[in-house]
Structure formats: structure tokens, C-alpha cells
Amino acid sequence: MESILEVRKLIKRFGGLTAVAGLDFDLRQGEILGLIGPNGAGKTTTFNIIAGAERADAGDIRFAGEPILGLPPHEIARRGVMRTFQHNRPFAGMPVVDNVMVGAHTRFRRNPFSPKASREEAEQRARAEALIDFVGLAGLRDADVGTLSFGQGRLLEIARALAGEPRVILFDEPAAGLTGAELERLAGIVRGIAQRGIAVLLIEHDMRFLLPLASRVVVLNFGQRIAEGTASEVRSQRAVMDAYLGDAAAL
Amino acid sequence: MRRLGWIALFAALAALPFFLGNYHNDVYRKLLLWITLALGYNFLFGICGQVAFSHFAFYGIGAYSVVILLFQVGLPLPVAAVLGVLVCALLALAVAIPATRLEGFYLALVTLALAQLFIVVLNEGGAVTGGTGGIANYRLPAIFGWRIAGPAYTVVIVALLAATLALLWRLERSWFGRACRAVRDNPEAAAAMGVDVSRIKVIVFTLTSVLAGIAGMVYAFVDNTVNPPIFGLDNAFLLLFMVIVGGAGRHAGAVLGATLLFLLPFWLAPVVGHHHQLVFGALVVAAILVQPKGLVGLWNRFSR
Fold first, then answer.
1. Domains along chain A?
2. Which of B183, B213, B228 is the last residue of a domain?
3. A90: chain B residues, CB-CB within 8 Å
4. Are B240 and B120 members of one domain?
5. Which chain A positions have a beta carbon within 8 Å of B178's beta carbon?
6. What does each of the 251 residues of chain A score in pLDDT, given as a tens digit?
7. Which of B188, B208, B228 is the last residue of a domain?
8. Most B CBs within 10 Å, among A49, A74, A113, to test the B interface
């Protein structure tokens, strides 16, 4: 299958520490790729560089063949790479539906004074409401975001990112802080997103959540790829066991 | 139906000056101008979350620009008006582009400095600005032989308010307004959603500063005098208080806050004389501590 996102020879140093040391991997169209590794392996740094929140020292990232490394976050979002935040970052002064509509920001074509602006606004509102239903927040469309539970806030993050009609969606530890029932629901939503043809990149600590979900995983340690393959392929590799020593039970 | 309601409201506001005497026309004009200013400042501060203290200075820059261009340079009114807008826009861009790229605090500092510098320039401007005495004894030039004066000029101010409200209303209820509020609530998340945060800040600062400048141009022919004390920091802070007391982030809040704080001194004068500032201070502290959503928030709470 064709790659939608290609990461090549990515390097990021923080002072004397090399957080990402020549990382290579591909995200293919329609797949769910898990990026895993022990703490400090460079997962979050890689994530932030792809999303444009941090700069890299060297390397190349291509989205649909176009270089995107070094572009500001809003430009990366505009091109079709949307993200969620590990610590929910809602827009607190707006109801749920408006939060999701901010996600559609780059999809608006009309200027606000155009006579057709109100029709476009209504269309985008309908789309936002459909996405709210898709993530399972129906009934909370007009709720104040302050009244949402942590888990509902996470679902709002996902609906908001989907509103940008992404071709790639980046999840930053989506399972963190969720209950068992919420995890099952989240897994269903992630599968639904992949079925829509959106490529999913997941950074995750929770192996019990990730391994059944991911079509492929890339294992990082010390900023490098130490293994790659399906969950069962990776699980049996010695290097992965060593990297996770002490956490082997989780695998 | 709703459109008809708005038309009726503004028709009534436009008719009112013809039933008022000279004194009340003057009070009414200034109330309308304060509401216009508060609406623009609310968009900048309440909706887009930008803490700037230059809004009232731009009101002064607009007023002085049009007066200087008309009577010191001798340009015709339409040219002076267009150039005045241009002066405000260029100055706003010059402040906003460097300041909004930094974090919010710097915009506050830079705009405070601009407001102070403006007063210094006015006082030291010699023959151009008229120095400490300002410029007085001029009249609105005739347009095609027509000289707008008296209640008719009040109608011009009603039209200014209507146009300002219509513009900001439309913007606020669009993707642009949502992006502004997203920038206020969480700039990092806004950027991740595709919002060009610095661009939004620069556009909103420039737009609202130009609106303040236009209001200033209109004000220049209300008192037919411009001088430094009118445009000092007292009024810059009064504008901030109006938006906070009324309810930052809502057009209705700006209208309520401006109306209340503008009229309050008239009612308080017999009671506390010139010490109404004390009452304002108490109101602002009360709003921030007890009701951060201002009078509009109170209204929402009790109407539920």
C-alpha cells in the first residue's frame, strides 16, 4: 500500500541528548500505525515534529509526497494532518459544537460577508453535529465544554480533529486516563476512522489497548527504530523485550 | 422578523435626537460613541483575548489625523478621511506585527507605551497638533454644499454605531469569530486546528484600531476641538472597565457596560461629586471577583 506520510533520517537533539536519532518509518494509507517504546524513546518528540509543534535538526518528512518538515502547525493542519492532544485542550469559552467547528476552520471557503456564508455555516454545523454523534457525544452538542468528563473531553478532541477532513490523524496517547469501558469505545472509534480511509498514527503506552488495534507497530528506543511489523511479529522480537524489560508483562 | 426589529430599533435611535435639546444631543452623541468604541474593544479584548491599551489612543489618532489633514494641510474631506483611515491602519500594523508574534503581555506593554507616546507627541507637536491646547474652532466642511449639523450629525453617529455593530456581528458569527475565540481560549490548540494565530491577531488588532480611528474622526466634529487630555489613559482604562463590567466577549456586554459607566457619573454626581472613579473601581473589582461574565452573565443567570 502507498505511503501517505514518510519520515526519513529524522534527528532531534536537546543539548547533549539525541532524542530522535535518524528515525525512518512510513505511515500507509488507511492503516493504524502504533508508535511505541519505553519512556524517553523519542515518541512524543517525533509526534511534535510531525505536527509542526517542534523543529527537527535534520531529516525529511513528506505528506502525500510534499515536504512538510518545518512548516508551522496551522499549515500542516491545512494540508490534512490533524492531531489530538494528550492533555485535552478544549476551547473553554465555546459549546461542544463550536469546538468541533473550529476544527473545520480550514474547510471554510466563503468570506464572512458573502451572501452564501450562512449556508456554508449551516452545512459545517450539520457536519460537526454528525461528527459529535460519530464519537458518541450526541445529546451534548450544545453543552458547555466545562461540564464534560475527561473521557468525553478526549472524544471531543477526536471529533474536532476529524472536522478538518484530515487524511492523516495523529493521536497522542489517546488511552491515557480512560476507563475500561471508555477504552473499548475509543478502539471502536479509531477503527471507524481508519475505515473512512484516514491513516492513523497512534502514540501509546497502553499495550493492551494498542496491540489489538494497530495494523502495524514501529518500536522506538533511544530515538531509533528497533523493530517494525504486526503486533505478533514485534511481540516475539528479542530487542523489543529488552527495551521493555521490567515492562515485559505488558507485552 | 428579527431584521425588522433591528431596523425599527435603529430608526428609533436615529429619530431620537430630533426630540432632544442641544445638551441632551451632546450627551446622547457621546454615549453612542462610547458604545461604538466598547463594541470594537470587546472584539479585540473580549472575543480575541488581546490585552491592548491603545484602542482609545487610536480614537484620538483618528480625530487628530482628520483635523490636521483638513485644517493644517488643507485637504478636502473625503481625501482627509481616507488618509486618516490609512494612518490608523499603518500604525496598527506597525504595532501589531511585531507585538502579536510575542506572548500576550508584550502587546499590553507596547500598546500602553503607544498610548503614552501619543500624548507626548500631541503635547510636543507644536503648530501641527496645537500643543497642550490642541486644535479648536473648526467646523465640519460642507459636502456638495451640504453642512451636516445639529440632530442630523447625531444621525451620522447612529449610522456609525449601526455599521460597526453589523460588521462585528457578522464577523463574530462566522468561522472568523470562532477562530478569534479559539485564539483567546487556547492558541496552541487553535494552531493545531489550522488557525494562523498571529494572522488572526494582526487582523483583529488592525481592524478594531481602524474602527476606533473612524469613531475618532466622527468625534472630532462633536466637540469641534481636539486636545491631549481627552485622549489620555484615564479613558483607555474606562473603556476596559466598560467591557469587563458589561461582560467581556459579548456585544450586549459592551453595550450595557458602556451605557452604565457613561451614565453613572451623571447620576452619581449629586451623591459623590467627582469621586465616581471610586464607584467604578469597586464595580470592576466586584465584576472580576463575583461575576466574571459581567452584567450579561448576571442577566443570563437570572433569566434561566
1. 3-80+166-250 (3.40.50.300), 90-152 (no CATH)
2. B228
3. 185-186, 189
4. no
5. 94, 98, 101-102, 105
6. 689 999 999 999 998 899 999 999 999 998 999 999 888 888 999 999 999 999 999 999 999 999 999 999 999 999 999 999 999 999 999 999 999 999 999 999 999 999 999 999 999 999 999 999 999 999 999 999 999 999 999 999 999 999 999 999 999 999 988 999 999 999 999 999 999 999 999 998 888 899 899 999 999 998 899 889 888 888 777 777 777 655 555 55
7. B228
8. A74
- The interface residues of chain B toward chain A in range 163-182, judged by CB-CB distance below 8 A, are 170-171, 173-179, 181-182
B299 and B251 within one domain:
yes
Whole-prediction pTM value? 0.93
DSSP string, chain B: -HHHHHHHHHHHHHHGGGGS-HHHHHHHHHHHHHHHHHHHHIIIIIIS----S-HHHHHHHHHHHHHIIIIIS---HHHHHHHHHHHHHHHHHHHHHHHHHS-HHHHHHHHHHHHHHHHHHHHH-HHHHTGGG-EES--PPPBTTB---THHHHHHHHHHHHHHHHHHHHHHTSHHHHHHHHHHH-HHHHHHTT--HHHHHHHHHHHHHHHHHHHHHHHTTTSSEE-GGGGSHHHHHHHHHHHHHH-TT-HHHHHHHHHHHHHHHHHHHHHHTTTHHHHHHHHHHHHHHH-TTHHHHHHHHHH-
- Whether chain A has a CB inside 8 Å of the CB on B293: the answer is no
Say yes or no: B214 and B252 in one domain: no
Name the nearest CA neighbour of B144 among B84, B68, B224, B76.
Answer: B76
